[in-house]
Amino acid sequence: MAHLRTHRPPLNSRAAPAEAATDVIDTSYLESLLGYNARRAALAVIEVFLEAMAPYQLRPVDFSVLSLIAHNAGITSRQLCATLGILPPNLVGMLNALEKRNLIVRQPHPRDGRAMGLHLTTAGQKLVRDAERTAAELEAEVASRLSPGEQKTLLRLLKKIYQPE
Amino acid sequence: MAHLRTHRPPLNSRAAPAEAATDVIDTSYLESLLGYNARRAALAVIEVFLEAMAPYQLRPVDFSVLSLIAHNAGITSRQLCATLGILPPNLVGMLNALEKRNLIVRQPHPRDGRAMGLHLTTAGQKLVRDAERTAAELEAEVASRLSPGEQKTLLRLLKKIYQPE
DNA sequence: TATTGTTATACTCTATAACTATA
DNA sequence: TATAGTTATAGAGTATAACAATA
Fold it and tell me: Of all residues in chain B, what percent are helix, strand and coil, respectively (each to 5)?
């Protein structure tokens, strides 16, 4: 199978242990893929986010849930699930934990007896206010690697990717 | 079991059930955060990727592993882990599965008796070739929502986010 | 002593089925 | 009949500790 070489192939040929150990890894192909870069960027941002939110004991999903409740008083579990892409059974435990911490309350929905409206407690409002301020600082820090124009461009392009329209 | 519910007094205790049900959810705050957008974009791309790679029975991580082996013959498990951010114990099962499918082989490392060099089999080379072609088509499709200039810009900005430098 | 690959294991995250009470 | 919330549970993904062989 070695008779078709035109150039000198760096790929394995015959020899025993295939003599092809590399010290420097070539990642250029993966780095050309949008999905790879988007995932790496998301993980990097989330990592910083985790640290910054540790004082509030909030994971990204908790922050998202509380922030949505803050800006949409009375939102239902189902609406939260649809907005954040969470499955209903997996939201229950989160809401129970947040309720136990006295950050949110479930109240009867005004027009649908099956549903419960979610609301922040006073403590929850304060926590969200503080956490959102921290998030803003974090945002400024992470995005400081980009110019203001680049930041706006990045958000716009990301939205174009995940919002079919 | 009688789950006793401490009926916490509603915040706005006077009026009926807090009358604040919204039909339209305001997500503008979350959408202003880089992490939120990066994660949503990554998930959207990965979802399409999953479908496109189904014929090859490859998850994103499998594709990354095979592609790295293809472009770095003889790469070790440890190098794969460092590059992709996978923990060694979690890579073992993936490599076993790929080896069982006759896509890769473990060969003794030429200079380090502890390590094993990873190589593609002929079948593995064909699969990677096909999968990478499919990935390219997919890339073109997803990124078609962006102009060529925007695509380059997006990749560049994402890299600036996750590559500290 | 440090590192590679590995096993065992635990913990988190996500997904599916089914139940209740309301609509 | 369909939907909102919930329970129980299964599966995938990710984490730590520890061991044998080699450096």
Answer: 60, 5, 35
Question: The pTM is what?
Answer: 0.85
Q: pLDDT tens for residues B97-117? A: 999 999 999 999 999 999 999
Q: CB contact, 8 Å: B123 with chain A?
A: no
- Rounded to whole angstroms, the Cα distance separating A37 from B146 reads 16
Q: Return the residue of B nearest to A148 by Cα.
A: B157
Straight-line distance from the first to the last Cα atom of chain B, in angstroms, rounded to the nearest whole number: 57
Report yes or no: A56 and A46 within 8 Å, Cβ to Cβ: no
- CA A57 – C1' D15 distance (Å)? 19
Task: Provide φ and ψ at B106, rounded to 5°.
Answer: -95, 125
Coil, strand or helix: which one is A52?
helix
What band does B20 get if pLDDT is binned at 50, 70 and 90? Answer: low
Structure token pair of residue A138: 């974090």
